[in-house]
Amino acid sequence: MSDRENGKHKSRAQRDAAKHKPHRTQDRFYKAKHDAQQACEDLRAKIQRSNIHDAVRHELFRAVDAAESQISEVALTRSHPGSRLRDITKDVGHVQVAETWLAAADRVLGRLGPDGPRSSRVAIDEAVDTVMWHIRAGEWDGRLTPAVTELQRAVQEAEAQAALRQAG
Q: For residue 43, is it within any domain?
């Protein structure tokens, strides 16, 4: 005889209620909230130490402020808000990677100088504009990643050209 025929079958709601452990939910929520806040603090410190243009720095600070505002709006409910906090943490990580390549773009433009190859300078400027547009628009996940990848490619090509200019 199956459990259903014996009357031992539990409904989905009963199984869900049995799994719900409030103390575990709270622990996971507060850990996720702490991790998200820590990611924001780390990014803020990295931006402060970075040698990027002031306009880019201000935009990145606005992005961090927006993330911190989203974190503070998430409240502990039964519907697992920790997943939203983990998503915010991942998004902040994407912005942190973007900041790394934005700083690298500034450095390589400085190495190329004003008389460096125009194609490299244009490629970097366009990639930086695209990355900053996604950051301003709050598109920090699926759309920011390919833009950062394009910036990374442009920076690496320009870095190779800068190295050749200095060697030659």
A: yes
- Decide if 2 is inside a domain: no
- Domain range for 81: 13-167
**In the chain, how many domains are there?**
1
Is residue 136 within 8 Å of residue 59, measured between CB atoms? yes
What residues of the chain score a pLDDT lower than 50? 1
Looking at residue 141, the DSSP 8-state letter turns out to be: S
In a domain, 8, yes or no: no
- pTM, whole model, 2 decimals? 0.72
Query: What's the CA gap between 154 and 31, in Å, rounded?
Result: 38
- The span from the CA of 39 to the CA of 99, in Å, is 13
Instruction: Classify residue 116 as exposed, middle or buried by CB count within 10 Å of its CB (0-12, 13-18, 19+).
Output: middle
Biggest alpha carbon distance in the chain?
85
Locate 142 and state its tokens.
């699926």
Neighbours of 39 (CB within 10 A): 22
Mean pLDDT taken over the chain = 83
Q: Which of 131, 136, 132 is nearest to 148 (CA)?
A: 131
